[in-house]
Amino acid sequence: MIKVIERLADGIDILSMKSEQIEVVVSNYGCTIMKVYMQDKHGHIDDVVLGYDDFTCYQTLDAYLGALVGRIANRIGKGQFCLNGKEYHLAINNGPNHLHGGIKGFSYQIFDYQIVDEKTIVFHYLSKDGEEGYPGDLDFKAIYHLEGDTLTIRYLATTSQDTIINITNHSYFNLSGKQENIYHHLLTVQADQFACIDGDGLPTGEIRAVKDTPFDFRTPALIGERVEKQDEQLLLGKGFDHPFLFTAKENQVVLEHQQTGRRLTVSTTLPGAQIYTANYLDGRMGKYGQHYFERDAVCIETQNLPDAIHLEKNPTTILKKGETYDETTSYKFEVIKG
Ligand code: BGC
After folding, report:
1. Burial of 20 (0-12, 13-18, 19+ CB in 10 A)
2. Deepest of 91, 101, 109, 287, by most Cβ within 10 A of its Cβ?
3. pLDDT digits (tens, 9 = 90+) for 145-190
């Protein structure tokens, strides 16, 4: 069942999507996932994502809690790129680089939307040619569908002119219901390689094997046993803040909190994910009067390789006029009883 639970100023709505198992609270502001309520193995319900009680924080702060990120998630080196022989300049909003679509990317836009059936919301936004420096009118849709314990998000876009696109969702998961940080979360990532980053979080172009590194999550490992290791890449990122390159075609990432029996399985059509251990949360006030610090959550940001426009021979982030960007990521929130 879907209903509008609050109407704020400027056409910003907050909606609840409910199934028998879970409830997801979303806003048409940045298509933001504000809450995900789920049971634990004893039937106790908690909210398993970070967010704010004060809505203006979504509009003014920059951690992208729960937000849809675009047009380009993650960084573009120096905020510059060349497409079809033309140079484009984007906002430099993260050290020397462009991050998460710029100053007023998709996370800060109000989408129009339609509740198309009792399980589905279609969010829509027309991003004008030149918005945040990107070329082409981009006609964009995000379809949120809740079925049982699974939230599926499908992203669709067409453009009036060749452009670049790399959309993700930036939810911060903490399956304990933020009773503790994520040290006791077990993580599995079906990736045998990850992309190295520099001190500004930008991929360097070096793709490294996970074997014999703290990045090897091909079998489940506790995040707490890995994240503080004295590894050059972890030190550069202040924790995990790296693109993982998937080997599997589905169920690529599993996050589990054994104490509560909660398990999140992420499945995507995209080739990788930025795994980020909330390294830059700075004690800000979040929901339920809680302060948020580094390691309080983990983001699983499915996407093409960050900075693909500079690093890949045939950049996967180019969307040509006449083509359709069509990617899907699903989040299965399961309770493992017993
Ligand atoms: C980036 C981080 C950044 C965070 C919040 C993540 O996707 O990789 O470096 O601090 O988003 O903006």
Report:
1. exposed
2. 101
3. 999 999 999 999 999 999 999 999 999 999 999 999 999 999 999 9
Structure confidence by residue, pLDDT tens digits, 75-128: 999 999 999 999 999 999 999 999 999 999 999 999 999 999 999 999 999 999
Ligand 1 atom 10, closest CA = 280
The whole-model pTM stands at: 0.98
Among residues 301, 310, 327, 334, the one annotated as catalytic is: 301
Distance 123 CA to ligand 1 centre (A): 24
C-alpha to C-alpha distance for 136 and 162, rounded to whole angstroms: 7
Asked if 185 is an active-site residue, the reply is: no
* 301 is annotated as an active-site residue: yes
Is 2-333 a CATH 2.60.120.560 domain? no
Establish whether residue 280 lines the binding site of ligand 1, counting it when its CB lies within 6 angstroms of any ligand atom. Answer: yes
Domain boundaries of the chain, sorted by first residue: 2-333
- Closest ligand 1 atom to the C-alpha of 73? 7
